[in-house]
Design goal:
Distance between the termini: 28 Å
Structural class: alpha/beta
Order of helices and strands: EEEHEHEHEEEEE
Oligomer: single chain
CATH architecture: Alpha-Beta Complex
Number of strands: 10
Strand order of the largest sheet: 5-4-1-6-10-7
Number of domains: 1
Shape: globular
CATH topology: Spore Coat Polysaccharide Biosynthesis Protein SpsA, Chain A
Helix content: 10-25%
Length: 177
């Protein structure tokens, strides 16, 4: 199955504090390698990637071009990447022209063990947790995700924490306003 992988790398990584002052969050090292390298290498060699760039985006682009010259990447500059009217929704909307086919969305800091399933159906990744206060959570009914809830949404408790990865097969309305 032909599909793409969308990795938004536009944000400032503000929750990491000073660590991302001079580097993009996706280039922060885990096990002596950028987290972005771990992500890219989880997918087959013929996978195409859509990378949303913003904060220190030039460093991300340079790293990818040097480390993966044989792979295919589409780079999208996101503006604004911080402040009012910025955010993940804008990044995805700006990438939408490259995502008019089944794709996988993964946050630039989501690492999973094992094989990531292709988007042969719509799916969303979650982890069962005992305390979900610090996470977006999912309402799942009979195996179907009915809602994604913000952190600490009043009156709702879930033990399914969204982990920042999803497969999107049905793209009919994706990117429309």
């Amino acid at each position: 199955m032909s599909y793409r992988v969308c990795i938004p790398c536009a944000g400032t990584g503000s929750r990491l504090g000073g660590i991302t002052k001079y580097i993009n969050k996706s280039l922060v090292s885990i096990a002596h390698r950028p987290v972005l390298a771990h992500l890219i290498e989880q997918f087959p060699d013929d996978t195409e990637f859509v990378i949303a760039l913003g904060h220190k985006g030039n460093l991300v682009r340079e790293f990818i071009k040097l480390a993966y010259p044989q792979r295919t990447f589409f780079f999208v500059e996101v503006d604004p990447f911080e402040g009012p009217n910025s955010g993940l929704g804008l990044s995805l909307l700006m990438c939408s022209e490259y995502l008019q086919q089944p794709f996988i969305f993964t946050s630039c800091d989501t690492l999973v063990l094992g094989t990531i399933l292709p988007p042969n159906s719509n799916w969303i990744g979650y982890a069962n947790v005992s305390d979900s206060d610090q996470y977006r959570t999912l309402v799942v009914d009979e195996g179907i995700c009915k809602d994604i809830c913000e952190k600490n949404q009043p009156g709702f408790e879930s033990r399914r924490a969204y982990i920042g990865i999803a497969g999107i097969k049905i793209i009919k309305n994706f990117g429309t306003q």
